[in-house]
Amino acid sequence: MDEYKTSQLDAVFGAVADPTRRAILARLAQADARVTELAGDFPISLNSVSKHIRMLERAGLVSRTVSGRDHVLSLNARPMSEAADWMDFYRQFWEQRLAALEAFVRSRRKTASAAEKPADKPVVRKGKQT
What we know:
The chain has a domain of 74 residues: Arc Repressor Mutant, subunit A (Orthogonal Bundle), CATH 1.10.10. Helix content is 65%, strand content 14%. Strand 2 and strand 3 form a beta hairpin. It starts with a helix and ends with a strand. The model has no long low-confidence stretch (mean pLDDT 87). This is Metalloregulator ArsR/SmtB family transcription factor. InterPro entries: ArsR-like_HTH (IPR011991), HTH_ArsR_DNA-bd_dom (IPR001845), WH-like_DNA-bd_sf (IPR036388), WH_DNA-bd_sf (IPR036390). It comes from Uliginosibacterium silvisoli.
């Protein structure tokens, strides 16, 4: 994986690690919003919301359009898609490994079960062997 992709993934995972930033992304998934509108949704200062937004912008998850004094934010989900693709690769990797482990355990159980099964013994009834 090239250095750009690695740093982009680092930025995305760092950005979505915070619940406030995830809430901002969820809000922007509904509709674009001005910075002041977003700030009103959170019990923190406008300055704190702006810091969260800047981190989301650095990760490429949010884009800003300036029109006069209005700063309108939009969600850009592409970096999250790339992060999901990265996670999916490892999900498939571990699913394959776990499936192989499960097959191994099942085969060992069958082998152990067959080894523990007692050999057929003659049935003894009233002093006679059959």
